[in-house]
Every structure is written in C-alpha cells, then in structure tokens.
Design brief:
Layout: E1 3-5, H1 8-11, H2 15-23, E2 28-30, H3 38-72, H4 87-117, H5 123-132, H6 145-159, H7 171-174
Parallel strand pairs: 1-2
Helix pairs in contact: 2-3, 4-6, 5-6
C-alpha cells in the first residue's frame, strides 16, 4: 500500500531523508506529481526535494533576520514574560465568565422548560433535542446529559424555582 502525500515538501524538506525512504523501497505517491517511475522520476523527485530544502533554509534565514531586527527594536519575544494576573484581575475574569454562563443559562431556561413540558424527561432526551434544534453547547460541541444537568443547576440556583425534578436522583436522571 503506497504512502500518499499531497506535495513533496509536506513529506520532507531533506534530500537525504527522501533518498533513504526511496532506497528503503517505500512506495511514495504525490498528489501533485505524475507517477514517479524509473531513474528519471527519481531524479525529478530528488530535484524537487532539493528545491524544498533550499526553500526551508531561506525561510529559516528570513525568520532569524526578522526576529533579530525585532529584538533590536526592543520587541519582547517569546511566551512567558513573568507577568502574572493580580488577584483583582483574576476575580474580575472569573466574575465575567460566571455572568456569561448565568446569562446563557437564563437564555436557555425557557427552551428547556418547553422541552420538559413536551415530554423530554431525561437529561439525555433534553440534550438530544437541543442538538436536534441546532443549539450549540457552551463551547460549541455536542450537548451531553452532564451539560444539561449543570445548565439546570444554574437556572435553579439563579431563579430559586425548580424546572426539573430534584437532582437527588443523580445518575438515574442522566439516563
């Protein structure tokens, strides 16, 4: 079974590595090239790999030059610069996330209440119906019974009224 690759430079930018693959008898096919067969095909493939290797070296040199120029201008490079959020900033961020989650729960409360009135009794049934309606979960994924449970807990905590059976049933409610 051949190894199929989109382009030569997606496999490697090293002529030596490509030569080792070919010498080992690996059947490599490239989507952007006709069948590579015989001495001519191998030669063309190695030339393309040589061009890819040259290109990689040029990209590296340009990147290093650009980073050096930025450093000379005083730009701070790299990830962790030792800065830490203050307790006040962390608290503000947490409060903003909590408020957003509460607002989302309030927006969905009427929909969930409607689903329950229509006969969706289990958390899984509610999750399936929210999916069927195309309503995205909090992070854009699929709805699960656990997410619906947390949504209901948020709604119940914020409105002090129950729109679901008590959660004392726990795992039984999720089924």
């Amino acid at each position: 079974m051949p190894l199929v690759v989109a382009k030569v430079d997606r496999l490697t930018r090293s002529v030596a590595y490509l030569s080792r693959l070919l010498e080992a008898g690996v059947d490599v096919r490239f989507a952007d090239l006709p069948a590579i067969e015989g001495a001519t095909g191998k030669f063309l493939l190695q030339q393309m790999a040589a061009v890819a290797e040259l290109e990689a070296g040029m990209i590296s040199a340009r990147t290093k030059a650009a980073l050096a120029a930025a450093k000379r201008r005083g730009v701070k490079l790299g990830g962790d610069r030792g800065e830490r959020l203050t307790a006040k900033a962390r608290a503000a961020g947490n409060a903003a996330q909590w408020a957003g989650a509460q607002a989302r729960a309030a927006d969905l409360a009427d929909t969930v209440k409607e689903l329950q009135a229509a006969g969706c009794e289990s958390l899984r049934a509610i999750a399936a119906e929210l999916e069927a309606r195309g309503m995205p979960a909090a992070r854009g994924g699929k709805w699960s019974a656990v997410q619906v449970s947390r949504l209901l807990e948020r709604v119940n905590a914020s409105t002090a009224q129950r729109i679901s059976r008590p959660f004392g049933a726990g795992a039984a409610a999720a089924q």
